[in-house]
Amino acid sequence: MTSPAKFRKDKEIIAEYETQVKEVRAQLLEQLKCLDQQCELRVQLLQDLQDFFRKKAEIEMDYSRNLEKLAERFLAKTRSTKDHQFKKDQNVLSPVNCWNLLLSQVKRESRDHATLSDLYLNNIIPRFVQVSEDSGRLFKKSKEVGLQLQEDLMKVLNELYTVMKTYHIYNMDSINAESKLKEAEKQEEKQISRSVRQEEKQTPRSPDALTNIKIEEKHIRRSSVKKIEKMKEKRQAKYTENKLKAIKARNEYLLALEATNCCVFKYYIHDLSDLIDCCDLGYHASLNRALRTYLSAEFNLAQSKHEGLEMIENAAENLNANSDKQCLMVTYNTVFCPPARFDFQSHMGDTVAHICAQPPVQGELLQRCQQLQSRLSTLKIENEEVKKTMEATLQTIQDIVTIEDFDVSDCFQYSNSMESVKSTVSETFMSKPSIAKRRANQQETEQFYFTVWFFHPQSTTVLLG
Q: HSE of 427 in the Cβ direction (CA atoms, 13 Å)?
C-alpha cells in the first residue's frame, strides 16, 4: 500500500499543477482585458482627434469669414469714397501698393483658411473615422481568434492534467504490484527456510517409519511451495503488466509535457505577438497618413502665407519717396508743372524790354550791382552752412524714423515648457517712457528742421529788395 507521505505528495503535485493552471487562466483573462482596454483607449483617442479637428475646422471657418469681412469692409470703403478716382490714380504709388497687397493677403488668407477647414471636415476627420472603424473590426476578429487560441491552450493543459493523473495511477499500481511481488518472494524464502529447519530437527527412527514420514512431509512442503510459486507467478505477471502500463503512461506524460510546453511557448512568444499585430494592423500607418495630411495642409497654408508676405516684403522694400514724388508729379503734371513765364508787358507802346544803363542811372546800377554781388557771396556762404545743418538734421530725423525696431522674433521663441519667452522689445522700445522720449526727440528735431528751412535768407528776396 502507498504510504501516507507518498499519497500526500501526489496530492501536492496535483494541487501545484492546478494552481499553476489557475494562474495561467487568470493571466489569459488579464490579456484580453488589457487588449480591451487598449482598444477603448484607441477609440477614445480617435474620437478626441475627430472632435479636435471638427472644432478646429469651425475656428478656421470663423476666422476665414472674419478675414473676408475685414477685407470687404476696407475694399468697399475704398470703392465708395468720393476720392476713389484719386486713389485709383495713385495705385502705382508704393504705399498704395502695400495697402492693396495687404488687402489681397487678407483675402488670400481667408480663402486658405476656408480650404483648411474643408480639408479638416472632408478629408482628415473621415480618415480618423475610417481608422476607428477598421480598428474596431480588426480588434473584434482578433479577439475571437485570441479566445480560440486560449481555449485550445486550456484544452492542452487539461489533457496534460489527465495524462499526468493517468501516469500517477499506473505508476502507483506498478509500485503496489512490485511491493506484492516482493512480499511473495519473501514468503517463498520463509517457506524454504522452514522446510530445511524441520528436516534438521527430526530424530532418527526405523527405516520404514522414517521413509513414510519423509514422503508425507515432502508432499506437504511441495504443496505449500506450489501455492507460493503460483501466487508469485501471478504477482510477477501483474507487476510486469503494471510496470509496462506505467512506462507507457510515463512516456505519454513526457510527450504531452513537451507538447504542452511547446504550445505554451508558441502562444506566449508567437501567437500573442501575432494577435497584437492583428489588432494594430494598419492602425499606425493610417494614423500616420491622416496626420501627414494635416501637416501637408498646414505646411501649404504656411507656404501660401509666406508667398503673400514675400510680396508685401518686396513692396515694403520698394517704398521710395523720390520715386513716388516723381510718379505723383508725372500723374498730375498739369498741377505740378511750372506755369508759363511772365513776359514783359509794355505800356502805352513802350518797346524797350531790357535794362538800360543810360548816363543818369549808370552809376546807380553799378553801385547796386556791387551790393548784390557782395550780398550774394554772403548768402552763398550762409546757404552752405544752412544746407549742412539741414542735411545733418534731416539725417537725424531719418535715423529716428528708420530705426530697426520691427524684429519681434523673441516673442515667438518657446522654452521646453512651451511658454513664450518674454520679449525684450516690450521692455525697451515699446515701453511707454521709451516711446514718449523718442517721439519728443523726433518732434523737436522736426521743428528745428522746418525752422531752419523756413527762416534762412532767400536770395530771391534780396534781389527783389
A: 6
In a domain, 313, yes or no: no
CB 305 within 8 A of CB 112: yes
The DSSP annotation for 249-267 comes to: HHHHHHHHHHHHHHHHHII
Residue 363, in any domain of the structure? no
Cβ-contact 278, 178 below 8 angstroms: no
Contacts of 193 (CB under 8 A, 6+ apart): none
Q: Domain end: 302, 335, 351, which one?
A: 302
Question: Which tens digit of pLDDT belongs to each residue from 263-320?
Answer: 999 999 999 999 999 999 899 999 999 999 999 999 999 999 999 999 999 999 988 8
Question: Is 172 in contact with 2 (CB distance < 8 Å)?
Answer: yes
Region of 282 (left: φ > 0; alpha: ψ -120 to 50; beta: rest) is left
Q: Which of 253, 276, 302 is the last residue of a domain?
A: 302
Local structure of 425: helix, strand or coil? helix
Please name the residues in contact with 301: beta carbons below 8 A apart, sequence gap of 6 or more.
Answer: 112, 113, 115, 116
Rounded distance between C-alpha atoms, residue 188 and residue 195, angstroms: 11
Report pLDDT for 1.
41
Domain of residue 396: give its range.
Answer: 371-403+424-465
Per-residue pLDDT, 69: 94
Instruction: Take residue 2 and report the three cell numbers written for it.
Output: 502507498
Res 424: pLDDT: 47
The total number of structural domains in the chain stands at 2
Handedness of CA 196, 197, 198, 201 (dihedral sign): positive
The single residue listed with the C-alpha cell 476656408 is 114
Is 365 a domain residue?
no
- Per-residue burial over 41-76, b = 16 or more CB atoms within 10 Å of its CB, e = otherwise: ebeeebeebbeebeebbeebbebbeebbeebeeeee
Report residues of the chain scoring pLDDT below 50: 1-6, 82-83, 203, 423-426, 459-460, 462, 464
290-309: burial string, b at 16+ Cβ within 10 Å, e else: beeebeebeeebeebeeebe
